[in-house]
Amino acid sequence: MNKLTGKIVALETSPHMSMVDVDVDGDVFCSIVLETPASAAYLKQGQPVTLLFKEAEVSIGKNLSGLISLRNRFKGTVKQLEKSPILTKVFLEYKKGQVVSIISTRSAQKLALAPGDEVEWLVKTNEVSLLNEV
Amino acid sequence: MINLRLKRQMQTSRGPEWIDLDLSMASGGFVSLFGKSGAGKTTVLRMLAGLIPPQEGRIEVDGDVWFDSGRKINKPIQQRKVGFVFQDNCLFPHMTVRENLAYACLPGHHDGIQEWIGLMGLSGLEGRKPHQLSGGQKQRAALARALVGRPRMLLLDEPFSNLDRQARLELQDEIMRVYRKTRITMVLVSHDLWETFRMSEMIFVIDRGRITKNGSPDEVFVNNDLSGKFQFTGEVLDICKEGVVNILTLGIGHQITKVVAGDEEISDLKVGSMVIVAAKAFNPLLFKI
Predict the structure, then answer these.
(1) Chain A 14-53, CB below 8 Å of chain B: which residues?
(2) Choices 2.60.40.10, 3.90.226.10, 3.90.170.10, 2.40.50.100: CATH for A2-131
(3) DSSP state of B140
């Protein structure tokens, strides 16, 4: 599970849902949750939270161009690869920490991923959970 | 409002323990006392009904004092006007369904009997004796009998625990229908998370005679510090490394399921560990069964 800590900087709510913007070291992440400030008091500006997302929800792009619907798109550097027949675990340097992606070994080969590669990593807003940091 | 302040010693498998609680609930609501067996839930219900007295305390229902140890008030059960449905229905075995209802009926209100027989789906069964009914029918008859007495409060003590899944769901729906129709105060005692969550408006979690948590079902059961709405409690049954991931077999309720987890996620888990399984509410696929 990937964990990044940040602070809520903006909220957009509808009756049962919120789009939450979280600042992590200068990058803004978006998470959609089935909560509102009325049902979860921690949903407020300035609140420290941890972003949680599974490794398998992290996609990797190289030389991406064109438009894409994913809002969470950030730069990282491939640090290490761990391969198995079906899946490959990609360790990325991101800011001062690390983000791990699990993609198919076929994709890792197609992208010719190697340590030192500058890539973009992406995660959908509806795959990012929030944990209240009390 | 219903205000309870109760103190009473109870005998448990751990030895004598004290029930010591103070709670308020809105009258006309659906309230549950939730907890493990031996927590003191049934004893609280019995004190509320007037079946046993608190050693100290006060029970006040809409301004009417039912019990006050200081003022030596202890209204008898008949004056409290409560209906009771137990785990094992207490229908009189030698009486038919109709006779059981008539026995509990207030004088002059026998016209209500046929209505409750119809509402509880017992039409055609009113001439049968309890041993000629299924478990679900017996509990519906017990519910009808509790209601013909026109109670102001219905006390439900684990009424579903001896029923199979289908009968359990039907009786829950039946009780919810009665609740919406009559709006009488319902107090359910249960150790079943799902039925408590499904039926209640307000839940008091009781452990060793004390209230440890209270609030709406969401406030009590959903971990609001985590935004995942798809959340269960499960037990790790197996951990199997497969390439760069781990496949965990989990027991959740009566189901066995498998999830994929990273090394760091399972670092402090072993077979037998209890876990919260959470996912984003967007992911689950639903199929009608």
Answers:
(1) 31-35, 39-42, 52
(2) 2.40.50.100
(3) H
